[in-house]
Amino acid sequence: MTAASSAGASPAAPVSPAPMPSAPAPPPAGQAAGDHRVPGLAAEQARAVALINEADEICLACHIRPDADALGSMLALAHALHAAGRRPQRITASFGDEPFEVPEILRFLPGLGLLSPPGSYPARPEVMITFDAGSIDRLGLLAGPAAQAGHLIVVDHHASNTRFGRVNLVDPGAAATAVLVLDLIGALGGELTQDVALGLYAGLVTDTGSFKFSTTTPEVHQMAARLLSTGIEPGAVARQLWDRAPFGYLGLLSGVLARAVLETDAAGGHGLVWTSVSAADRAAHGLSLDAVEPVIDVVRRTEEADVAAVLKQSDDGLWQVSARSRGAVDVGRACARLGGGGHRNAAGFTGSRSAQETMARLRGLLAEG
């Protein structure tokens, strides 16, 4: 069963069925990826292009519990590779979650029918490409195939990336993994269709916080313009990603915010605000784990705290921790030391202890700055 069938009929993608206008010519290879920031990235991209062009089998994988940048980037390349007349003959795309379900908020992305459950993923892929995964364990059930792949290409923009591939297209200066994938598609000679552009735009707009984060550069806006030139409707994308929620979310949010804790002396005196969402909280309101992801965006608005954290309990009892910083404290470093990773201002990790113990560990590391 594919993700599309397990999720039921997915809403129509917010793109126009009209013929696609021609897009501006892609920038030179390496330009969009920010090769001036990462020496050797252009050479790594050339190696990736050669491997992809020569392969008869390519397997794509993004990180578990995928967000828009991970899934959108993977689907964008899947669309490009499936274009008429392109090798390879066999293309598989998946992520290593069980049960295998596309987050409801991402079911508007085109190409869900291209996905396969991890159980049907080749054990020893000829060429495997990962998206937005900072380490091999972030692939979940697909970590095994990654370790056995003939050639493993890692495409990512996290500073905490462990460079676990044979080829590593890793640029911590890129605003999103989508930036690197657009550049890779251009190097492959792929066409920027609406389906390709929509996946990439979803990744770009989410990882830049709707173009509010410090990673939003002139080049980011130029990339957005290229993607929008295919006919994407940005308002429709925004409605899918941010402007809707189940009614039960309002009740949950009320209780979660009521128990938020502000610690003005924490995080080296820069302040910490945090709260938690238990599995029982979600069950009481009929919400999935991905439905409570936006809680962090409300909590992080607290003016008195540089750092915000939200602990979300999954059905197996583990705590998925999202951490955000206004810039004074490096939450990426703290989360990396707890087995997670991310960026200076946005990161996360998984905790197996109680919520209080998990916060105590994070609090101690945040005190170091």
| Nearest-integer average pLDDT | 90
Secondary-structure class = alpha/beta
Work out the helix count.
Answer: 13
Total strands? 11
Radius of gyration: 20 Å
Largest sheet: 6 strands, mixed
Whole-number total of structural domains: 2
Q: Look up the CATH topology of the largest domain.
A: inorganic pyrophosphatase (n-terminal core)
Name the CATH class of the largest domain.
Answer: Alpha Beta
Outline the low-pLDDT stretches: 1-36
Order of helices and strands: HHEHEEHEEHHHHHEEHHEEHEEH
The global form is: globular
Helix content: 25-40%
Strand order across the biggest sheet? 6-7-8-9-11-10
Beta-strand percentage range: 15-25%
- Give the terminus-to-terminus CA distance: 46 Å
Characterization of the model:
The chain is of the alpha/beta class and 369 residues long. The chain has two domains: 3-241, inorganic pyrophosphatase (n-terminal core); 247-366, Diaminopimelate Epimerase, Chain A, domain 1 (Roll). 34% of the residues lie in helices and 16% in strands. The chain contains 13 helices and eleven strands. It has a six-stranded mixed beta sheet, with helices on both faces. It has a five-stranded parallel beta sheet with strand order 2-1-3-4-5. A hairpin with a 5-residue loop joins strand 8 (307-313) and strand 9 (319-325). Helix 3 packs parallel to helix 5 and helix 9 (247-258) packs antiparallel against helix 10 (279-285). The longest helix is centred in the first third of the chain and has 15 residues, at 68-82. The protein is globular. Residues 1-36 have low confidence and may be disordered.
